[in-house]
Write a structure and sequence with these properties.
disordered N terminus, binds zinc ion, 5-stranded antiparallel beta sheet, 8 helices, 28% strand, 6-stranded mixed beta sheet, Aminopeptidase, alpha+beta, 19 strands
Amino acid sequence: MRKRNIVVILICLVLVSWNFPVTASTKEVIINEDNLNLRSGPGTTYGNLGQVHKDEVYTVIKEQAGWVEILLDGYTAWVSTDYVSIQGEFTDPFTSGATGIEDTANSEDIADSTDTEEHAVQKSINVVYNQTQVRNGPSTEYEIIYLASKGEKLQVIEESDSWLKVKLEDSEGYVFKELIEKTTGKLTEGLSGKTIVIDPGHGGDDSGALSVNEVYERDLTYKTADILAQELSILGAEVIMTRDEETFVSLASRATLANTVNADAFISLHYNSVPNLPNVTGISTYYYQEQFEPLANYIQQEIIKESEDRDRGVDFGDFQVIRQNLMPSVLIELGFISNPEIEQLLLTNVYQEKLVTGIVNGLQRYFAIQ
Ligand SMILES: [Zn+2]
């Protein structure tokens, strides 16, 4: 990891929600007004806890008579439903039964014993990565209640297709299976047969950062995503985009999509801006889970090699689209659109191809060692 010598405000990321999910929720709100007051209860007579802003998205805890309780960073507060849009039922792909989960533990028990009432699994697992997330339910919507260390042994209580229920000291938790059992190698070479989810940052009303000449980040990320999708398809990958050219898609939905299709990789594309520092330049790649740092490293190295932009390094980044992602996932800041020279380069297909070649080469290196 490279130490950055100046701190740059990542303006485009202001629009990325930093709130942490501590509960299973089925709904989200999108804030429609700037400086909307947060109240400690469902009414204007309750104390003011601060403000939220247009286009921010929060998890819904509860709805009550024209008010909705939302989850912020470590606390909850109420906003009037007059100034927000509430969207969709979140269907949990791991608990809805729609995936046809078959309890493999049961069939093993039946084969080994006549006691068909006993469905408990008698086995333990070795944690293979540091900071392996244990949640209080079988989906990424649930709170992380424990971080297991590499080499730690956990006793398995139940097992489904995707999740293991494990015993903790005073409670129980859920671990995503692929974090424990290294993915059983698919018999494919390189990118052929791999499912890659590409996430063009922002979209629709969320325009992201603005460049010197009023090019929106939203449109540039889509341009890059489109070229990347073509290249990956030519190499035999199945490519899924989180949004089309015009539409806004919530951050939670983007991560859920990758989890649902069991993607081999999730790549979120962004551009940066610091308008008051037009000389700032460089590219950086973020991972959330330690085991995906190698993917971030390969992609970062290859993009720098191709683009010759400044290497701002690889770092941990607490961004919702990669935090809620179970798949190998990274968020790439592909350059500063507030830098006039970079902006001009980014508008050319030649330079876009260089960025895309870097991402493709990074993915190929990553899959070569899996
Ligand atoms: Zn962005």
